[in-house]
Fold this protein.
Amino acid sequence: MPGFVVPDEVVYDKDFSLVIAARDSMINNWHYYAWNGVTLELSQTLLLGSYYKLSYYQKVITPNVFGTPYGPGALEIGISEQDTSFGVAVDTIAYNNYTWEKIEFVFQATIPAKHLSIKGYPLLGQDAAIVDNFVLTLDSFAVLGVNEQVAEKQLLYITDVLGRQSKPTPNVPLFYRYDDGTVEKRIVIE
């Protein structure tokens, strides 16, 4: 299902917009799923573990603008290291408005992505959305805690490999159990 550019009279910002479509159908007991999408190259590689805010505009294609009635559906947004794969999904967003709607969400980069991927995700038959003005920014608020205080963890007890309480002993593997639920495995070699 090839992608296409929207005519001037239905774009968001008087420049151009893209149509992202998907089709889910059954023909002769065979299930067919087709979609189109686009991959946008990022100006910088995403920082692993950092939070990003994505905003863009979307709307359902007005019935019969392109001679085919499209219905409400969904977009699947992903991040990828290559422009030839969809990569990792960061959100699936339904669209059902025939007027422009601003979408914003925050996600965490789980891979050092170089591309933003957008593809159609069918909900009912043949669905399509017009999308425009993608803006991706580093979200500094998502990683900051309010009045966050970090307390030092306290050692509860030490056990050997059989689970018996023990004292620090050189050349023996030991497990240090802390009050925050963490367990540290140690062996001091002398």
